[in-house]
Amino acid sequence: MCGLPNLRLRREKLKLVARRVFGTEAAVLEWMRTPNQNLGGVTPESLLDTLDGFEQALAELESTSPEPR
Question: Terminal CA-to-CA distance of the chain, rounded, Å?
Answer without folding.
Answer: 43
